[in-house]
Design a protein that fits this description.
The structure holds two protein chains of two kinds. Chain A is mostly helical. Chain A contains 14 helices and no strands. Chain B has helices spanning 40-48, 83-93, 120-133, 150-165, 177-183, 204-216, 219-223; strands at residues 2-11, 14-24, 29-34, 54-59, 68-71, 138-142, 169-173, 186-191, 194-200. The chains are: A mainly alpha, B alpha/beta.
Chain lengths: 308, 225
């Protein structure tokens, strides 16, 4: 069991090294990003503790992948497996719980640790025996696969909008809109296998335009119910609402271009930092979007423009 | 249709393709055989433009990649995407409209199920269906028979014959010699990144025997069974 964790420690170190960072810098940076990211969230919304718990459990639940668990069980046996999984979940949840304690959210911190332990017993990552329907099947793949992985969040977001209208809280309504935006952004974080880009008989520019069109269209489809509802019930705030909606558009564009600016590799650390900075200071996007666009065109040229 | 001149490819210091010259003509089926690691897949990836290389790959069709159906040894399938959506993704990429997908599902695949739950053979058949529906002019099939059931193997063989009769170019690799003998006009033997032999149809039997005696040799005795 000790060796298992030693191996994982090595794997994390390797990932940091692959990222091009000296280990000590990597760990310090991780710590800083975590601390300031958490502080930022808590400074922005009164619902931060719930979002925080939700995000933490999202991280922890990634360890519950069925094949991964079967593999660990087959090697260590059931009893050691349970110990490993509990320890893993606690290690993952610990920084979040600690920050919640720092913020004097003791109950939430306790609930988070308990829920993390319970996640070991209740494996939610079950392969359902049916295909989750999606309205995005005509233009695969990002929204098709993404929607199926995160479908349960959308009713929650719409419910938040309803609650926002019910308690007359415009900020909560904006949060529900941004939640949809954040989920859609997550569909574009990982690069696809290069085969799927290679298949397109489009120039890099046309390819990017196609991707942006689909991304914006489908994001609009998911967020339009919230936009309409908030527009009707908070008519006086429609200007602010539209500003947030347009900013979400800008982030969708930025993340798609950021992905292809590093393609076929994953986004590099500097690119990640630029995106993170844009969340703190959105006007950066005005420069960032054209920058990522030109990088993306360069990156895709070899793959899409046949030199033969 | 495709001319390859002096093609070389290295991964770091490891040269995996060495000065390859090949000439592929339309309406013909070419086989590439060789041991694992001989360089077949890298050669295919270079032709497709998925790898950078030294040398020249030229074609009468430009751009080549937009008319090329590439079947990978292990097709990469997204999780949470159905067979139907996988096909749609690939045909959309080539701006081809398919309306009668169910009818053209010749391998009887469960197209409404997640493709990631398919077996190895089913994934291969799905990927093959998709590139066939892309309406390509040439095809590179990297081990199309691998993991596929006998009935589908027969169907794939017939599909290759049909492609040939339609004047399409097919380049394929396989570790099953009988399937190559049944489909190919010419076979190229690769070893350590080089084409070491070109064999015409009339000499296929001889090649098979040569390969068998070379591959097996006295290895069984070494096992001491």
């Amino acid at each position: 069991m000790k060796k298992y964790f030693q191996l994982h420690f090595k794997l994390i170190n390797r990932r940091l090294i692959d990222f091009g960072l000296p280990l000590i810098v990597g760990y310090i940076l991780l710590l800083l990003v975590f601390y300031f990211g958490s502080e930022y969230l808590f400074s922005k919304t009164e619902f931060a503790k719930y979002i925080y718990g939700f995000v933490a459990l999202g991280f922890v639940s990634r360890l519950s992948e069925a094949k991964r668990n079967d593999f660990i069980k087959s090697i260590f046996g059931t009893s050691a497996f349970l110990k490993i999984r509990m320890l893993e979940n606690l290690i993952y949840a610990f920084p979040f719980a600690l920050f919640l304690i720092y913020k004097e959210e003791f109950v939430m911190s306790f609930l988070l640790m308990v829920s993390s332990l319970l996640l070991v017993i209740f494996n939610f990552n079950v392969n359902l025996n049916f295909t989750i329907p999606t309205p995005f099947g005509k233009k695969p793949f990002e929204f098709v696969t993404g929607f199926r992985k995160t479908f349960f969040i959308f009713p929650f977001a719409y419910l938040l909008t309803y609650a926002a209208i019910d308690v007359n809280n415009f900020n909560l309504g904006i949060f529900s809109l941004l939640l949809i935006g954040l989920i859609c952004l997550s569909y574009y974080i990982k690069p696809e296998n290069e085969y799927y880009v290679w298949n397109y008989s489009l120039t890099p520019k046309d390819f990017l335009i196609e991707k942006l069109k689909i991304g914006l269209l489908y994001y609009t489809a998911l967020s339009i119910p919230i936009l309409i509802a908030l527009g009707i019930f908070f008519y006086n705030e429609i200007g602010i609402l539209l500003v947030f909606f347009i900013i979400s558009y800008a982030y969708i564009i930025a993340i798609i271009l950021a992905k292809y600016s590093a393609f076929p590799d994953e986004m590099s650390l500097p690119q990640g930092i630029l995106i993170a900075l844009s969340f703190m200071f959105p006007p950066i996007l005005i420069g960032l979007i054209p920058y990522f666009y030109s990088l993306s065109v360069k990156r895709l040229t070899t793959l899409l423009n046949d030199s033969n | 249709m495709i001319q390859i001149k002096n093609l070389s490819k290295s991964f770091g210091k490891n040269q995996v393709l060495k000065n390859i010259d090949l000439d592929f003509k339309k309406g013909k089926v070419y086989g590439i055989v060789g041991e694992n690691g001989a360089g077949k897949t890298t050669l295919f990836r270079c032709i497709a433009g998925l790898e950078k290389y030294q040398g020249e790959v030229s074609s009468t069709i430009n751009p080549l990649k937009n008319h090329l159906g590439l079947l990978l040894t292990e097709p990469f399938i997204f999780s949470k995407i159905t067979g139907k959506e996988y096909i749609r993704l690939l045909v959309n990429a080539r701006k081809v409209e398919i309306t009668d997908l169910e009818e053209r599902n010749v391998f009887d695949l469960p197209l409404n199920q997640y493709a990631s739950t398919y077996s190895t053979g089913m994934k291969k058949k799905l990927a093959l269906t998709a590139i066939l529906l892309q309406q390509n002019d040439l095809f590179i099939l990297d081990e199309p028979f691998n993991g596929v059931d006998i009935q589908s193997n027969q169907l794939i063989t017939e599909i290759i014959h049909k492609l040939k009769s339609l004047d399409k170019l097919v380049i394929l690799s396989s570790h099953i010699f009988s399937t190559l003998a049944e489909t190919c006009d010419e076979i190229y033997l690769m070893k350590d990144g080089e084409i070491i032999k070109k064999v015409m149809q009339e000499d296929f039997k001889k090649l098979e025997q040569e390969m068998k005696s070379f591959t097996i040799g006295n290895k069984l005795e070494k096992l001491g069974l």
